[in-house]
Amino acid sequence: MNDLNKAIWFFGLSGAGKSTLASALHEHFRKAGVRSIVLDGDKIRKGISSGLDFSKEDRRENVRRIAEVCRLMLEAEVIPIVAAITPFEKDRDYITSILGKDVIEWVFVNCPLHICENRDPKGLYKKVRKGKIKSFTGIDQEFEIPFGDVLSLNTDKENVEDCLQKILSVLSVSVVRRS
């Protein structure tokens, strides 16, 4: 059994760096011999949530499903690392109620919209601007900035290694330097 029995949930705008940080944390855990899994919002939407759209109701159902998968992973002593936009405070509270306040670590991947749009690793912002995608967070659907006890990482100013160190210090896990 690992000493860290928590889900780590990265949330923020598309292109903010959630998946990059989730993958870096997963790799750190792998090298340390700690079992973890990345639950990427885009991949979840293609699989267990493929029938859902981006309405508030379907977004809530999507994150509920992810939270339930997290619960199963925790029971199996695998650390779930989630990378999902999760734009609404009400939904983040709902996820916390499903998993438990002491079982989830929220990490806000904070990056200005214009930087996310310039990065646009999946070409989604271009599709939004051409009218091919509707209800896109940050453009025609709001993103509620978190308040309270949430780790906030500014990925427009901090590199992956610095962000990883901050995450690990909050989790009280030692940092293994990557080459």
Care to describe what's here?
The chain is an alpha/beta fold and 179 residues long. Helices cover 42% and strands 15% of the residues. The chain is built from seven helices and five strands, in the order E-H-E-H-H-E-H-E-H-H-E-H. The chain has helices at residues 18-31, 41-46, 56-75, 89-99, 113-119, 124-129, 160-171, and strands at 7-11, 36-40, 79-83, 104-110, 151-154. It has a five-stranded parallel beta sheet, with helices on both faces. Helix 1 crosses helix 7 (160-171). The two termini are 27 Å apart.
Q: How far is it from the N-terminal to the C-terminal residue, by CA? A: 27 Å
The largest pleated sheet is described as:
5 strands, parallel
- Unreliable sequence segments: 174-179
Tell me, rounded to a whole number, the average pLDDT: 91
Strand tally: 5
Rg: 16 Å
- The topology string of helices and strands comes to EHEHHEHEHHEH
Q: Helices and strands: which structural class?
A: alpha/beta
